[in-house]
Amino acid sequence: MKKNVATIRDVAAAAGVSTATVSKFVNGAQRFSPAVEATITEVIERLGYRSNPLAASMITGRTKSIGLSVLDVGNPHFTSIVKGANRVALAHGYTLLLVDTEENPERERPLLEALSRRVDGMIVFSRMREAEMDWMTQLGKPLVFFGRLTRLEIPWVISDDHRGAYMLTRHLVSLGHRKIAYLSFPRSRRDEERLGGIRECLAQHQLELTIHEGSAPTAAEGERVCSSIMLGVEHPDALICYNDLMALGFMKSAQGLGFKLPEDISVAGFDNIQYGLYTSPPLTTVDLQSERMGVAAMEKLIATIDGKAQPAATTIEPQLILRGSTLKRN
Amino acid sequence: MKKNVATIRDVAAAAGVSTATVSKFVNGAQRFSPAVEATITEVIERLGYRSNPLAASMITGRTKSIGLSVLDVGNPHFTSIVKGANRVALAHGYTLLLVDTEENPERERPLLEALSRRVDGMIVFSRMREAEMDWMTQLGKPLVFFGRLTRLEIPWVISDDHRGAYMLTRHLVSLGHRKIAYLSFPRSRRDEERLGGIRECLAQHQLELTIHEGSAPTAAEGERVCSSIMLGVEHPDALICYNDLMALGFMKSAQGLGFKLPEDISVAGFDNIQYGLYTSPPLTTVDLQSERMGVAAMEKLIATIDGKAQPAATTIEPQLILRGSTLKRN
DNA sequence: TTGAAAGCGCTAACAA
DNA sequence: TTGTTAGCGCTTTCAA
């Protein structure tokens, strides 16, 4: 596997035309005389010529690739976002530059700064607070952000977490639950929105909320906190988890402790990851439409790159998915 | 967010030195007089100069990015590979260009051909047969392939699927299973290796194998085929699935049909995806070490790029993970 | 230690 | 319709 890659000059020379002509031909920029067209086609084929995209990008300033930064591709929520974004990118001829910051905020800035020079735009999922994000707007590239922004002029895409949480809580209350607890993940900006939705609903019913703090949005963390939630003086009769992964871990651990689900406690999460379908009982959840979020973000970014005006914010409506992990109390 | 990006010339002019000097300084190519060093440092800082990686790549021919092509990021097996590969890439200063071919073979070639011009090397997961892959070696970039190759001179990384299948089957036989079935996925090159391992073991015990063909490596497919496997004249007492996803779907569906697992049928898969832990019963599986495969592939590729000699093949040993979905017969 | 100059492979006016 | 020319921003001999 070695070099000898044909350049546009080789093609031009072999075809007896100028490089400009070849360039225009390759980019389909105009029409040509049949003779020239035939020759160039033949020469390109024979030499196996392919335009060097780097050289082209240098001049046009467009790389036809888009940076996507997520917190953890291993989390199905983010994986779905990547899927959705990738599909749209592909359809528009863009390639995805993936960055997985692995929930490490220090990593984000240098990674994104480097990335920004190689892409036409970026889609960013971050744990940073808005006050620490000003540098992003200095990057000189179109951006789309996952999450609500109040000050920075970056278009964003969000799911309506508050509403989703409200819907879920309301359902739990209507099932007769009175001792509702929330397993939180305060590091996430979405945590407080979910908490807000839960609180709003509980307040309307004069119910209390118990909060247990989680320190990672993972199944392992759900397992870890389970005993402290379930083996206190009085355990909740329903637990809302920050996400499905935590719910999965919690359920497993609770069952290991001898609790019957959903009889002893109803459990629900957020994200509607596929794997919530395969637990026993299957997991009630709020579908945040992860893949659609990815699609929406990528569409918005590409439209911005193409100079089409875009509404700054896109909100995606969640859907409550009822399954066996939540049960009516009597 | 607009242009006004400082170039190396701006820095050189402002610092009163040549662009060559700035270039060498930025790349740490040599030592400088304190005066020059101080000035350049200051000017770079003041102008917010960052080297344009595209321009640099044009000359050096190195992009510091690596293409990774997988069949479906949504499949946890591939997600883990991406995780592993990404971690190594990051540690070596490389960025990942992700390609998700979505199990669509026609897509692979054009995608990889385009990709090859923007990266220093590629790691490829493909459903293509070796006979159709010659064009890959023409790409002029270092490659690493996931899967065994006999003719092409591309380094590869594999898990020992044959051995993994053998181990699993042997365990099932030792548990007393006699009517073993395999839910296959013939489109995958690894399917026959797994099949081979199963067959070898069963032959040693004079046992028959029933094969059910699956058409997608997904949970949905596992659900779909369940009834035809379980509701025939006589159902198997153990089912090995091509992968964990199919096993997850199968188990759910079987339980829906009223079967008790693992009493009525033992089920096992391949990959050791995280979610096999959260089913009831949890899934027995063969851990193919997905993340380690990603790590190995990336390490091998980077070593190749760096001109370090590498053994052509790396085989990763699988590990049998026993959980509740397989049970002793009596 | 520093600089001059020659490109890397391509595109984009502008002319012809 | 085709060609000339002037770079894009950077690295790299080679000479000073």
Computed structural class of chain A: alpha/beta
- Are there runs of chain A of 5+ residues with pLDDT below 50, and where? none
The CATH superfamily label of the largest domain in chain A reads: Response regulator
Give the DSSP E fraction of chain A (strand runs of 2 or more residues). Answer: 15-25%
Query: Which pair has the most extensive contact?
Result: A-B, 54 and 54 residues
Oligomer: homodimer
Overall tally of structural domains of chain A: 3
Number of strands of chain A: 12
At the first level of CATH, what is the class of the largest domain in chain A? Alpha Beta
What's the pLDDT, averaged over the residues of chain A? 95
Main β-sheet of chain A, in a few words?
6 strands, parallel
Principal-axes geometry of chain A comes out as elongated
N-to-C CA distance of chain A: 72 Å
CATH architecture of the largest domain in chain A: 3-Layer(aba) Sandwich
Q: Order of strands in the sheet with the most strands of chain A?
A: 2-1-3-4-5-11
Helix-strand layout with pairing:
2 copies of one chain form a homodimer.
Chain A: H1 8-15, H2 19-26, H3 34-47, H4 53-60, E1 65-70, H5 76-91, E2 95-100, H6 105-116, E3 121-124, H7 134-137, E4 143-146, E5 156-159, H8 161-174, E6 180-184, H9 189-204, E7 209-213, H10 219-230, E8 238-241, H11 244-256, E9 266-270, E10 284-287, H12 290-305, E11 313-316, E12 319-321
Parallel strand pairs in A: 1-2, 1-3, 3-4, 4-5, 5-11, 6-7, 6-8, 8-9, 9-10
Antiparallel strand pairs in A: 10-12
Chain A binds a DNA duplex (16 and 16 nucleotides) through helix 2 and helix 4.
